[in-house]
Amino acid sequence: xxxxxxxxxxxxxxxxxxxxxRLFEVLRIPSISTDPSYKDSCRATxxxxxxxxxxxxxxxxxxxSVGHPIVVAHDGPRSxxxxxxxxFYGHYDVQPPDPLDLWVSxxxxxxxxxxPGNGEVVVARGAEDSKGQFSTFLESFRAWKRVAGxxxxxxxxxxxxxxxxxxxxxxxxLAEHGEEITCDLALICDxxxxxxxxxxxTLSMRGIVGAEVVLTGPNRDLHSGQFxxxxxxxxxxxxxxxxxxxxxxxRVTVPGxxxxxxxxxxxxxRQLESLGFxxxxxxxxxxxxxxxxxxxxxxxxxxxxRPTCEFNGVTGGYQGVGVKTVIPSKASAKLTxxxxxGQDPQQILDSLEKFIRGxxxxxxxxxxxxxxxxxPAFAFDPESPHVAAAAKALEEEWGRPAxxxxxxxxxxxxxxxxxxxxxxxxxxGFGLDDSRIHSPNEKYNLTSFYKGARxxxxxxxxxxxxx
Amino acid sequence: xxxxxxxxxxxxxxxxxxxxxRLFEVLRIPSISTDPSYKDSCRATxxxxxxxxxxxxxxxxxxxSVGHPIVVAHDGPRSxxxxxxxxFYGHYDVQPPDPLDLWVSxxxxxxxxxxPGNGEVVVARGAEDSKGQFSTFLESFRAWKRVAGxxxxxxxxxxxxxxxxxxxxxxxxLAEHGEEITCDLALICDxxxxxxxxxxxTLSMRGIVGAEVVLTGPNRDLHSGQFxxxxxxxxxxxxxxxxxxxxxxxRVTVPGxxxxxxxxxxxxxRQLESLGFxxxxxxxxxxxxxxxxxxxxxxxxxxxxRPTCEFNGVTGGYQGVGVKTVIPSKASAKLTxxxxxGQDPQQILDSLEKFIRGxxxxxxxxxxxxxxxxxPAFAFDPESPHVAAAAKALEEEWGRPAxxxxxxxxxxxxxxxxxxxxxxxxxxGFGLDDSRIHSPNEKYNLTSFYKGARxxxxxxxxxxxxx
Lengths: 467, 467
Hints:
The structure is a homodimer. By secondary structure, chain A is of the alpha+beta class. Chain A folds into two domains: 5-205 and 377-464, 3-Layer(aba) Sandwich (Aminopeptidase); 209-261 and 307-370, Alpha-Beta Plaits (2-Layer Sandwich), CATH 3.30.70.360. Helices cover 35% and strands 21% of the residues of chain A. In chain A, the strands form five sheets. In chain A, strands 1-2-6-3-7-17 form a six-stranded mixed sheet, sandwiched between helices. In chain A, strands 11-13-9-14 form a four-stranded antiparallel sheet, covered by helices on one side. The termini of chain A are close together. At the A-B interface, strand 10, helix 6, helix 7, helix 9 and helix 10 of A face strand 10, helix 6, helix 7, helix 9 and helix 10 of B. Strand 11 (308-317) of chain A pairs antiparallel with strand 11 (308-317) of chain B.
């Protein structure tokens, strides 16, 4: 196989100016998916993606959905026998820019700025999440096609428009048209590097289940003078139940909660330690000083490889200013559990429900409303050839080994790609924790943008040599 | 002393029709104190009281305040040496009638209705609370004055207009002009009978202190995936603290909470038992089946003579529909403790604050905001001559002994009268628990109205014979 890589990398270096111009172009379209008044802008952004992919040489088009259209594109060499078929995933929609008054400049008028520590950055809504991120692979395709005439293996691109609004058009599309995009490997560019100088591959993500618990005591709100003492207070019942969910060591007390979770291997633990995570700095940034999770686990382990049971909301009685001497009829809480491999979402929900029902006082009725849309955790094999190839490519580009990372959160689409369509997945992104995604003045480091595109060129090259 | 009582009672019986007409008159004025658009109606009601009191023969007038005016009136015999000076207290303001669509007829167009068990009732906002109630003593004054020419001792009447809106005009008036209305005894007509056939004297009321507790963990709301596990969740810290406030027997665990509370005397316990309180019916009416308070105490004891620590509100994190995977920065709760005699409000607040602060995790900051306006409980001596006189009068009128009742709630003005102005107080009212005060279709039994006025005539007679 001809070694096109050096020329591809040179082409990327030579086209920084037009690449940045293209990124600015798409950043100017306000594709706020959650706000119906930006419907046309979302379509315009999808069309921009289609046109750009066609210009590069892809067979690209829109797939209509009940929501915003999905960009699907295919390309590949005339002969791809024995080569993998690789999916690249991104999303073109962005979060609303509010609060607008905290933006230094208009969120949809991208600009360059220099930030201490980060150097040059692009500032705009979507600069990182995820227009900057998907542009890294678009630019690498462009350079490959210009230099080599074709990509070294079949590539399918999916760029959806509802990642930020939690809509289900893509899931529905996958359920109905999954075969069109089922590949051997999905490359998902929506995650972060380890730090601005160190690339990362995210090998695990926690799953999630959630529920709302509503306790009803008295059949109406009561006067706390007239009834207080003899009448059951559902807030008291609720806090008693919630407080019982964790023991003094921060462990979840629900029977069976930890069943099936494999012990952390010495190798993985060593690997996590070797990352040199600065827990004190991480916590200090959010105003805290000590890891609040399970005793016996490091902060990074608590974040990536241990499950949680978290209270996301609690409500009951009088919420306004001042005093109201009420015993409320109801009190409720919203809970989510972050799951790790080995935990079965349904079994966790069942155990949680049983535990909570078992602790309600007799005069309290309980509604346990499980959320739709839970999904299990996943962890990919750090020894897989795909990981090895990507790690090698990233190390060559960045001059230091890629961190084998975990993530505490979830990219739901991974569950679909992996568990429903059976694709191996690699999560490689060039975002940074300080990029203010979802917040005012979102930025993307130019290093991430340029070296990200170069990284994809190298990853494509390495994957092509695998088989 | 001439025995005017039989003639006074006959005068009351003979004037039922005009008395009811007068009650209807004042019920027609919508004196909703909390709503500024009813300011003129409130003043018109106050003026109705002044005119009525003048018509009866009182020296009556308005005392202006920052809020609604206070009605103050004086009367008494030319020679009152050796006689008590007695205050009668009522309020002319009413609760808003909302929700209006649940009223069978217009709330300010009083009507007579017949209710199973209650017989004839007046239906209107304020019918019981408290225009019906204060009309009972106005009618008894009218009859006394007509028959005897004068009342047998000096009487001062205070009818305020801000009882239902928690405003402080009367407290301010007492602080500045307390001497004008300081009497030997205050008769407060704003409470209930034991049941529709049994009169009651309320001898104790619980006090109250309250606070809001605000816990702050992280310096901002966090993503529960990105931070969950390592980051302290203030809802978790809060429910842990709140759950620790009661033990398994329903006792408050705050050290010193029960200090100073005298053991319930065998006599008082027997007295309470003799009332034959139907706890099952009381609880069943609010959808409950068992007393939720301290083990070892009856429901009535839990309601009247034992203190509570009650959660009136709890708030934290996401309150809306659906799921938000947030670890909130803050969580808070509103608490009030109902106090009994022996408990010092400030000491209870201090102990509560110390307890709560002592249970907060290190990374959690706590704001403890004590409410203004706490006040201690009070209990009057069941053996006092005033109680004995009133009890005798009530028994003569109703043909059965007056129940010596307690109350779980509070009438704040009693604390001012008793503790600031040093007056003995007697709480005697003719309300009933089923009268729907503060609710649609409020009613007042005609028996309460007519026999209430007769009861006051008898009480005045008995008090006049005391000295």
